[in-house]
Amino acid sequence: MSLIKSCDIHKTMYYKQCRECMHAEAKALSKAHAEQNKRNALTIKQQKKNSLPRKSVSKISSKRKAENPIYSERRKIFLEGKMCAVFPNLKATQVHHQAGRKGYVDQWAYDNGITAFLDERFWLPVSEEGHIKIEADTIWAKDMGFSIVRSVPIKQTI
Q: How far apart are CA 100 and CA 149, in angstroms?
């Protein structure tokens, strides 16, 4: 092959490029890359420093925070003098939400702005033991009428 040339700097023969020159070139490139990476890292650190601190997701939504005091008052009144629906010999101490607590139970509730959490039509007075039994055996609870399945979506008209 006639592509062999001589390197004037290192006084060696090479094919396309002298090994020492290639090594020096690679070193220079890696040094340039390292400096660029340092500059990028500094820029990222400055951006993080200047940005606002992260805010964690609230455990209770603002809507639920507004509903909680209303629920507490209504719950006390609702449970006064009531006995457990599951075990009638026990005093009711808790409210079981038969149709769940999220969303709206039906179109009437949606139209009137009453969430399932506050909809007393679907509250059931229970003792702690009764509540545990309902939650543990959902099929039995549905068969007995202690829990209700909401499978029909509500048309939300604005």
A: 9
What does pTM read for this prediction?
Answer: 0.60
Q: What is the pLDDT of residues 52-74, one digit of tens each?
A: 677 788 888 888 899 999 999 99
Residues 27 and 73 in one domain: no
In a domain, residue 71? The reply is yes
Same domain, 30 and 71: no
Question: Which tokens go with 43?
Answer: 């820029």
Collapsed DSSP state (helix, strand, coil) of residue 108 = helix
**Same structural domain for residues 72 and 131?**
yes
Determine whether 59 is exposed, middle or buried from the number of CB atoms within 10 Å of its CB (0-12, 13-18, 19+).
Answer: exposed
CB-hemisphere CA count at 13 Å for 39? 6
Q: Is residue 158 part of a domain?
A: no
